[in-house]
Recover the amino acids of this structure.
């Protein structure tokens, strides 16, 4: 298959233009500890109760409670991948761009 001439970050591996790249919002690169801090800051602004329970998780994992929702946070020292971050935000019912 011939390349279409599209260059840059939104180019598919085979040279085709990735159709939804401009719709995907950029999420911040944070580690688990920074994610918890940002969620706490967001909760303080919105008046929502938040707590982190490190005993409700195995190894380096822990559970973050945001109001009546919860998400498991991976290792608090390693950077979170964008899909993991989006998934945790979806479980907590928050927009990743609000962080």
């Amino acid at each position: 298959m011939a390349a279409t001439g599209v260059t840059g970050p939104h180019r598919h591996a085979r040279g085709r233009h990735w159709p939804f790249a401009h719709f995907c919002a950029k999420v911040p690169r944070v580690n688990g500890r920074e994610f918890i801090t940002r969620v706490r800051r967001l909760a303080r602004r919105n008046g929502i109760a938040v707590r982190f329970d490190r005993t409700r998780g195995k190894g380096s994992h822990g559970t973050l409670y945001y109001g009546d929702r919860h998400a498991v946070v991976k290792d608090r020292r390693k950077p979170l991948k964008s899909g993991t971050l989006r998934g945790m935000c979806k479980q907590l019912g928050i927009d990743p761009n609000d962080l």
